Amino acid sequence: MKICIIGSGYVGLVSGACFSDLGNTVICVDINKLIVEKLNKGIIPIYEPGLQELVERNLKKKRLLFSTDISSSIKKSDIIFICVGTPTKNNKADLKYVYNVVKSIKSNLNKYKIIVTKSTVPVTTGDKIENILNSKKNKNKFDVVSNPEFLREGEAIRDFQYPDRVVIGTNSKKANKIMKNLYLPLIKKGSRYVNTSRRSSELIKYASNAFLATKITFINEIANLCEKSHIDVQDVATGMGLDDRIGSRFLRAGPAYGGSCFPKDTRALVSTGQIFKTNLSVVKSVINSNKKRNKLLLDRIKLILKNKIKNKNISFLGVTFKSGTDDMRESPSLKMIPFLVKKGAFVSYYEPTGQKKQFKSKNIIFYENIKDACQNADLIIIHTEWNEFKQLNFKKITKKRNFKIFDMRNLYSTSEMKKNKINYFSIGR
Questions:
Q1: Can you tell me the distance from the alpha carbon of 347 to that of 355, in angstroms, rounded to the nearest whole number?
Q2: Beta-ladder partners of 330
Q3: The CATH number of domain 211-289, selected from 1.10.10.10, 1.10.1040.10, 3.40.50.300, 2.60.40.10
Q4: Residue 388 carries which DSSP code?
Q5: Is 18 annotated in the active site?
C-alpha cells in the first residue's frame, strides 16, 4: 500500500519505518527541512533502540522516503496517517497541528483516501476532522479512522511489530477492510484486531494511559505507607502482581511518572470529562498525587543529607523519565536537579544516551562516564533504571568514604548494601 505519514516525530518515524518494513511504500512528511534532509541520509534525531537499522534498511530498498512536500505526498498515497503532536494547553489537548494537517489534506484529495488519526486526540476529534473535510468536491473521497498508537519509548519497534492489540475506530466497512489488510502481517502473528466506533477508539487510548498512570501512582502511595510501616513494597507488588486481574506491570515504586504521554493525556482526559460534565475524580486524584511525588522525594533527599544540602556534591545516574529513551519531557529530574542547585548543591550527572540535557546552571555538570560523574559524590541518586546501573561497584567509582546512595528504582538489595557497609536508601523499603 502507499502510505503518507504526516509528522516525523517519535510516533510518525517509528510507524513509518515499521510500515515500510512490512513491504509498504511510505512517505514521511515533516515541515522541518533540516530534519528531513538528515532522515534521508539515515540520521535519526531521536534515541530508540533498533530504529536506526530499520530506517537505513528501508531507505536502501526505497520503500521509505522523507519529504517536506505535503501536497504531493498526500496525492500519491492511499492512507494518510496524522502523527503530529497534541501537547496540552491550559490542561486541554492543543489540536492546532492536527487541524492544520487536515486543511492540507482537504485541498489535496484527488481520490478516495483513508485519513487516520494516530496522534492521541480527545473524543469527537474524528467528527470535527470529518466536518472540515466535508464538501461537495470531496464527497465519497474519504473515511476518517481512529487508530491509536500504544508504543512504549525504548521498546517501540517491538511494540509495533508485536502489539497487544490493533484498534481501528470506524463504522465504514470499506475503511475497516483496508485497515485490516494493512495490519494483516501483524494479525497473523497473533495480534488482536479490534474494530470499534471512532469515538470508542479515541477514548481507549486516553483510558489506557490514565489507567497505567493510576497503577504507577497507586504503588508509589503504597510505597509511602511501606516506608512508615517497615514493609518492603517489592513484596507487596509481587503479591499483587501475581493476581491475573491486576498484573505486575507498572507496579514498580519510584519517582513520579513523566514522559510524552501520561502527564498530558491524564490532563486532557479530565478536560474531556468536564466538556461532557463528568467528574473523573480518580484521574484527578492521580494527577494531584503525581504532582506531590517530586516534593516527597526531595524531602527524602533533605532527610538523607540531614538538611545539609549546601555545598554537597550530588550525582544523578540517568536524567530521562525512563530507561531506553532520550526523552526528557516532564522527567522528574527537571524539577529535582534545579531545586537542589537552588539550595546550594553541586550536581553532576551521567546519561547513558550520551547526550547533554537542557539544564541551565554552571553548577550542573554532564559527564560522559559514570566514574567521573560519581567520584566526588556525597550522594548518588539512581534516577533512571538503565541496565548499566544494576551492577555497579560504588566503592570503586567514588573517592569519598561516607557517600550515600538514594536508589529511586530499587535496583539493589538492602541486605547486600548493608553487608558492604554502604549508606543505602531506597523507595518503600
A1: 16
A2: none
A3: 1.10.1040.10
A4: G
A5: no
Given 4, 28, 261, 374, the catalytic residue: 261
Beta-bridge mates of residue 350: 317, 367
Contact status, residue 143 vs residue 115, Cβ threshold 8 Å:
yes
Phi/psi region, residue 105 (left: phi>0; alpha: psi -120 to 50; beta: rest), is: alpha
Cell numbers 512528511: residue: 29
CA distance 141 to 146: 17
pLDDT(395) > 90:
yes
Fold that domain 2-196 belongs to in CATH: Rossmann fold (3.40.50)
User: For residue 386, what are the contacts with CB-CB under 8 A and spacing of at least 6?
Assistant: 317, 318, 323, 324, 352
From 59-68, 85-94, 167-176, the region with the lowest mean pLDDT: 85-94
Name the pLDDT band for 159 (thresholds 50, 70, 90): very high
**C-alpha cell recorded at residue 48:** 530508540
* pTM for this model (two decimals): 0.94
Tens digits of per-residue pLDDT, 371-384?
A: 999 999 999 999 99
Helices (H), 81-188: 96-106, 125-133, 156-161, 173-182, 184-187
Residue 354, pLDDT > 90, answer no
Amino acid letter for position 90: N
